[in-house]
Amino acid sequence: MPQNNIARHIEALIFSSVQSISVQEITAALSAVFNQPYQEELIEENIQLIKDRYLQDDYAIELVHLNNGYQFLTKKTYHETVNQLQLHRSKKKLSQAAMETLAIIAYRQPITKLEIEQIRGVNSDYSVQRLLEKELISINGKAETPGRPILYSTSPLFMDYFGLNNLTQLPQLKDIAKEENTVGETIE
């Protein structure tokens, strides 16, 4: 395959991927299609060329590195426009209960449904089911406790959805907590 076409094939792979796609996945796909090995360095060089091209003002999208892979996203300039579309699709938004459940799973994973319910104080069957359907969480095995309950963790789609490379990028609870939200006196 001519070297100038490789960038187009890489661009097609990234564009067609619902989630971020890694350099290793791109390399494997190209090697399989063209029946020859490709070096990751060549793939990375071409990804940089694609990335540079989409930085131009002519494009409303850009190539972003997240979750150890690459994905096309809308440039920040157009977020308000895209947000209007999302408002019209509000039926697909997560409920407050689902967001609470997702936050608990993100910070405490892997976690059982019983542990989620103990933290929330209410039944979380529906929220967990909706998050599984939306593929924001996944089943991560079974706990080594009596009854062997299912363990839940966040999924790669969660990472893409919230624009994270890893879980350490989640806001720390100390950054979120405000003094007016405390009860009682603080003793030092």
Automatic annotation (TrEMBL):
<dbReference type="InterPro" id="IPR005234">
    <property type="entry name" value="ScpB_csome_segregation"/>
</dbReference>
<dbReference type="InterPro" id="IPR036388">
    <property type="entry name" value="WH-like_DNA-bd_sf"/>
</dbReference>
<keyword id="KW-0159">Chromosome partition</keyword>
<keyword id="KW-0963">Cytoplasm</keyword>
<protein>
    <submittedName>
        <fullName>SMC-Scp complex subunit ScpB</fullName>
    </submittedName>
</protein>
<keyword id="KW-0131">Cell cycle</keyword>
<dbReference type="InterPro" id="IPR036390">
    <property type="entry name" value="WH_DNA-bd_sf"/>
</dbReference>
<dbReference type="Pfam" id="PF04079">
    <property type="entry name" value="SMC_ScpB"/>
</dbReference>
<keyword id="KW-0132">Cell division</keyword>
